[in-house]
Design a protein that fits this description.
The chain is of the alpha+beta class and 112 residues long. It has a single domain, classed as Alpha-D-Glucose-1,6-Bisphosphate, Chain A, domain 4, CATH 3.30.530. The chain is built from four helices and five strands; from the N terminus they run βααββββαα.
Length: 112
């Protein structure tokens, strides 16, 4: 039997926007245009000084999940986006997922 293929991606950005701004805006993520169409979003998790916005969905048999983390930094906030696409149909969805997540953190900062 073959192993199930898994594709992972990670993106990071530093911004001068304070974590408090992200806390207010990510409380209702569907109000941000860059996250409006994002399927499978869970409510924001406030983990003390860090924030986490997770998603999980199944599309054409592939499982897509990931986390957007906002952490404090000396000049503002550190954003980290981690994602994973798992399953044989992931080969078909890889380009679509890359298009959807490309420059997501830049768009998020711009929409604050």
């Amino acid at each position: 039997m073959f192993k199930t293929p898994v594709f992972r991606f990670q993106e990071e950005r530093l911004t001068d926007a304070p974590v408090a701004t992200f806390r207010l805006r990510l409380a209702a993520p569907r109000e941000l245009p860059c996250l409006r169409a994002w399927a499978g979003l869970h409510p924001m998790e406030d983990e003390g000084e860090e924030l986490a916005l997770r998603w999980h969905r199944t599309c054409l048999g592939a499982v897509e999940d990931g986390t957007l983390r906002v952490m404090p930094h000396e000049k503002g906030a550190h954003l980290r986006l981690n994602g994973r696409l798992r399953g044989w149909s992931a080969f078909l969805l890889l380009g679509w997922m890359r298009w959807r997540t490309d420059r997501l953190l830049d768009r998020l900062v711009r929409e604050l």
